[in-house]
Amino acid sequence: MPAIALLGFLAILYSFFYLLYHFIKKIKNKERTLSKKIFYPSLIGGIIFFIVGISFLDTGVQAKLDDEIEQNTKLTAENNTLKLENSKLEKQISDLTSEIKETASNITEYENNLKTLEEEKKAFSSEKDSLNEKVSDLTAKNTSLQNKVDSLNTQLASKDTSTPTAKENSDQSTASISSGEREDFANCTDLRGTYPNGVPAGHPAYVPSMDRDKDNYACER
Length: 221
Description:
Among the domains are: 2-91; 164-218, no CATH class. The chain is rod-shaped and about 210 Å long. By secondary structure, the protein is mainly alpha-helical. The protein has helices at residues 2-28, 36-162, 166-179, 188-192, and strands at residues 199-200, 217-218. Residues 184-220 form the Excalibur calcium-binding domain.
């Protein structure tokens, strides 16, 4: 139908151009008359065709307008839905931002606690090293003392082995007495070379002059 409206518009335009042409010619020839067979049919027909075409064109435009309105309504509904979703997303973003801030605060607190624990660990490690040094020193001292004790025990064992017991001296004295032979020694030092613990009265080696404390035991230690 737009073609009919265009055809009517061209007919109207043709009639106006024809009218203009007629006036120009009439200036030169005043007796010239307007051709009613050309002007009026083209003008009236053009107007009719234009109105009919426009009416159909208006119907199409109205249909398009209705479509546009319907689409606009749909878009408005979608826009409202998107606004609602956007509001929800903004709320979620706000909640996530709060959670992020809280998490960051917790991380800072954990980092501070971790630093404190590391400092305590260093202090404990230092104290442990100090205690280990003390233990090492005490162990060394203990080892040294143990070595001294072992040395003293060795010396005591050596003395016990080299020194005759009282029983041995008694046996020697008894043997000498039973033999009845007199033993002469120049002094106590000489006597102790044979009898380290001295000799009792009645022993062949007993001499009163060597019994200085008069306890009937000569050259006792």
